[in-house]
């Protein structure tokens, strides 16, 4: 078989978040504390749009969390168009459609971080994120008792609605004017709070105004409001220190600091604000302001005895401010100022055990400096008053336990609250909270015990109906998962022993049934399971071996079955990163044939979906930037048909295909003038010839997520809208020629909604499974629509 190289991006891979120097989001290159990315990138659900070169990848194993996924029963088609209300019947709630997970595995497949910790007025707040449904959720945790107990803070829009997903606050500060948090990387956002216990996302932007090249590195609360600072680009590309001030965290004023190249640290106490950064020649300088940041005066922080020229951090407590320099003997030197103007040496930290300072924090309860000792373990030193006496906590853990150095803040009665993120693995990452004392005790806080802080990973990707029973497949806790509907409820029928052979994340992406039994396939590997009755399943290493025998790595698979037998189609990443399509066929699930060439056109090919009819199989995808279909009467020899693009379109792809007798519907996307719109094709002769049909788009970035056919016609589902706030539309058609929207697409709530799979059920109904993710949690979608 000829191997063809795709010119588009390489197929997505399962990954985990990169690390921040304070255990969170990536920092801009050159920013203080920035470290090179040393791990895979986060897994995020990518909208199924077509890039300019029309290289739409098979959706890779999207790590999708949904503690409650949804079951909705849609009306049969009956040859009628959907009415605006979705039929004359009244919607009613069914029993729960929640899909179970594997006991004791709730943190697997969940990628969480804690990036910052701050304290004010007796409330301690952390900010971070959790990836548990294919998108990123902002997450604030707070404690009002010195870290003894924690709660997840709700996040809302100003009108009380759910905010869009995706933005993550990487800096947080609290003070006399309240709290503010900002995003400094990735999707922008800004949040405010009066008390740190509930938050409002006040914008889908960061600090404004900003100019191209602006980077926000620090955020602190002042007596009059808030101050942020970092680095900008001056004329000629030189670095320029930039400062923003705000009375409320919403409205900001931008200014630059003459002669400075960047600001790395900031702190405020009483009426004084102190910033520290570098000049254009790399020398360090510290400035103080007594008017909330309107004017700045250079101040001298001593560089002795033997201190290095840099500043490791500044912080404030109830008595004044400290600045910390790296010392000459693997230690840290502390300097104190009551007003930010006059500084003097206060103490040396870590003289015996050594200390390489990494973070400096202050609160009304004192100062904390965290770093690593000579043995490499992380620990914190705490002090009250003027910082002349410091006591260490017990070990907070070694570098292998963290993505990067943790930071800590002083709590009441000599306690220290440390926060960070675990070292990311290929299957999970977790935020870390510790409550330590200078007497040596270190007590971890279980995030799983905080309601809503850990949302288990569950994703249903495919559904099949046969013999009066329904079987759904997907992933749970990052393992392949199979559920069967019993007495109106879904039951997890796969066992951990059966699915845990793969060390990484895995998911089943397709399930089908024919006379030889049930077949479920997925990635990575690929993986395959078979069953005679839909209840008892067995891994099928022979199928997985056959699918893995070709060169490259199968990253996306779909299956279909009919009178001709079973077919598995897959997207293969060949050596060097190219992509090709492959097909396997079997009559009885016992022996498989690697099918004939489906890459018979020059250029790249990808098969994304397959359907079975009474006399042939039809698969769909793209071939060299154009929508393409493949047909076969025996499952072995396939004919490729490259479909013409509509007038003005530059690329296209077919993502879904379904058959009703000799009628075949294929749905996908096309790009015209840089805009992505739906693409619909119809064949009335089993795929021999095709005709485009009109299909209106409900909104921007429409992408088809599911398509099915039954005796009454066709049902399609699509997702549309901006990232983090996608909606769902459902269409029905009696014959694939004209399509009407259904009220089933009006899913409750806000955030991100998606129907991931559809299947025809008994009585002319259609079963739809999906989820509606919000900032708080996935929302179960359980709805019944009466027959029209």
Short description:
This protein has about 800 residues and is an all-beta fold. It is about 0% helix and about 45% strand. Strand 7 and strand 8 (about 180) form a beta hairpin.
Highlighted features:
58 strands, single chain, five-stranded mixed beta sheet, disordered N terminus, 788 residues, mainly beta
Task: List the SSEs and their pairings.
Layout: E1 70-74, E2 111-120, E3 123-131, E4 136-143, E5 151-153, E6 155-157, E7 171-175, E8 178-182, E9 190-193, E10 199-203, E11 215-221, E12 226-233, E13 239-246, E14 253-256, E15 260-269, E16 272-279, E17 284-289, E18 297-299, E19 313-316, E20 321-326, E21 332-337, E22 344-349, E23 356-363, E24 366-372, E25 378-383, E26 391-392, E27 407-410, E28 415-421, E29 431-437, E30 442-445, E31 458-466, E32 469-476, E33 479-486, E34 489-492, H1 496-499, E35 507-514, E36 517-523, E37 527-531, E38 538-539, H2 541-548, E39 553-562, E40 565-573, E41 579-586, E42 593-594, E43 605-612, E44 617-623, E45 626-632, E46 639-642, E47 649-660, E48 663-672, E49 675-683, E50 691-692, E51 703-710, E52 713-720, E53 727-733, E54 740-742, E55 752-760, E56 766-773, E57 778-779, E58 782-784
Parallel strand pairs: 1-58, 6-10
Antiparallel strand pairs: 1-56, 2-3, 3-4, 4-5, 7-8, 8-9, 9-10, 11-12, 12-13, 13-14, 15-16, 16-17, 17-18, 19-20, 20-21, 21-22, 23-24, 24-25, 25-26, 27-28, 28-29, 29-30, 31-32, 32-33, 33-34, 35-36, 36-37, 37-38, 39-40, 40-41, 41-42, 43-44, 44-45, 45-46, 47-48, 48-49, 49-50, 51-52, 52-53, 53-54, ...
């Amino acid at each position: 078989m000829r191997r063809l190289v795709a010119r588009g991006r390489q197929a997505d891979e399962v990954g985990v978040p990169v690390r921040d120097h304070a255990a969170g989001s990536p920092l801009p290159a050159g920013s203080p504390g920035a470290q090179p990315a040393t791990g895979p990138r986060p897994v995020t659900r990518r909208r199924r749009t077509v890039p300019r070169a029309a290289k739409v990848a098979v959706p890779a194993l999207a790590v999708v969390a949904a503690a409650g996924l949804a079951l909705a029963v849609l009306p049969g088609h009956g040859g009628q168009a959907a009415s605006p209300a979705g039929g004359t019947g009244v919607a009613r709630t069914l029993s729960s459609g929640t899909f179970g997970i594997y006991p004791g595995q709730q943190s697997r497949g969940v990628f969480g971080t804690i990036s910052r910790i701050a304290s004010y007025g007796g409330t301690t707040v952390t900010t971070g994120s959790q990836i548990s449904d294919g998108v990123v959720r902002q997450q604030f945790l707070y404690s009002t008792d010195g870290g003894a107990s924690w709660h997840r803070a709700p996040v809302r829009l100003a009108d009380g609605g759910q905010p869009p997903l995706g933005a993550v606050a990487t800096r947080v500060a609290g003070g006399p004017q309240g709290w503010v948090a900002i995003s400094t990387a990735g999707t922008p956002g800004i949040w405010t709070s009066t008390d740190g216990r509930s938050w409002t996302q006040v914008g889908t932007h960061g600090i404004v105004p900003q100019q191209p090249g602006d980077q926000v590195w620090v955020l602190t609360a002042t007596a009059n409001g808030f101050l942020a600072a970092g680095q900008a680009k001056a004329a000629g590309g030189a670095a320029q220190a930039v400062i923003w001030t705000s009375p409320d965290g919403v409205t900001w004023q931008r200014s630059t600091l003459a002669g400075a190249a960047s600001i790395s640290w900031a702190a405020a106490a009483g009426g004084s604000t102190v910033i520290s950064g570098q000049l254009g020649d790399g020398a360090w300088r510290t400035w103080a302001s007594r008017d909330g940041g309107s004017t700045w005066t250079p101040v001298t922080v001593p560089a002795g005895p033997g201190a290095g020229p840099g500043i490791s951090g500044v912080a404030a407590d109830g008595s004044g401010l400290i600045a910390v320099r790296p010392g000459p003997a693997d230690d840290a030197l502390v300097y104190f100022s009551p007003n930010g103007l006059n500084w003097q040496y206060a103490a040396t930290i870590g003289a015996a055990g050594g200390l390489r300072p990494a973070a400096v924090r202050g609160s009304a309860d004192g100062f904390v400096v965290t770093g690593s000792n000579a043995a490499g373990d992380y620990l914190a030193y705490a002090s009250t008053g003027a910082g002349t006496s410091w006591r260490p906590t017990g070990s907070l853990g070694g570098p292998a336990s963290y993505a990067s150095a943790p930071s800590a803040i002083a709590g009441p009665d000599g306690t220290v609250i440390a926060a960070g993120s675990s070292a990311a693995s290929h299957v999970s990452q977790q935020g870390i909270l510790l409550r330590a004392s200078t007497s040596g005790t270190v007590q971890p806080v279980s995030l799983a015990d905080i309601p809503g802080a850990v949302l288990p990973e569950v994703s249903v990707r495919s559904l099949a109906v046969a013999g009066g029973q329904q079987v759904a497949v997907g992933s749970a806790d990052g393992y392949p998962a199979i559920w069967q509907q019993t007495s109106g409820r879904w039951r997890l029928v796969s066992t951990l022993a059966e699915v845990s052979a793969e060390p990484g994340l895995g998911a089943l992406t397709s399930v089908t049934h024919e006379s030889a039994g049930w077949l479920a396939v997925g990635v990575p590997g690929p993986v395959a399971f078979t069953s005679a009755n839909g209840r008892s399943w067995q891994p099928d290493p022979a199928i997985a071996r056959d699918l893995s025998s070709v060169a490259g790595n199968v990253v996306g698979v779909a299956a279909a079955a009919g009178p001709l037998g079973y077919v598995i189609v897959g997207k293969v990443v060949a050596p060097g990163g190219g992509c090709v399509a492959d097909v396997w066929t079997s009559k009885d699930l016992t022996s498989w044939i690697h099918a004939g060439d489906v890459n018979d056109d020059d250029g790249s090919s990808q098969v994304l979906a397959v359907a079975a009819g009474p006399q042939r199989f039809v698969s769909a995808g793209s071939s060299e930037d154009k929508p393409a279909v493949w047909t076969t009467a025996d499952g072995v020899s396939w004919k490729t048909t490259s479909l013409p693009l509509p007038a003005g379109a530059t690329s296209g792809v077919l993502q879904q295909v379904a058959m009703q007798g000799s009628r075949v519907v294929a749905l996908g996307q096309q790009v015209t003038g840089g805009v992505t719109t739906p693409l619909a094709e119809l064949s009335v002769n089993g795929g021999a010839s095709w005709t485009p049909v009109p299909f209106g788009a409900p909104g921007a970035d429409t992408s088809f997520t599911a398509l099915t056919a039954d005796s009454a016609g066709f049902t399609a589902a699509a997702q549309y809208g901006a990232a983090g706030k996608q909606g769902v539309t459902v269409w029905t058609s009696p014959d694939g020629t004209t399509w009407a929207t259904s009220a089933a697409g009006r899913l409750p709530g806000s955030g991100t909604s998606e129907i991931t799979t559809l299947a025809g059920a008994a009585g002319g109904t259609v079963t739809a499974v999906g989820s509606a993710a919000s900032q708080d949690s996935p929302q179960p979608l359980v709805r019944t629509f009466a027959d029209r």
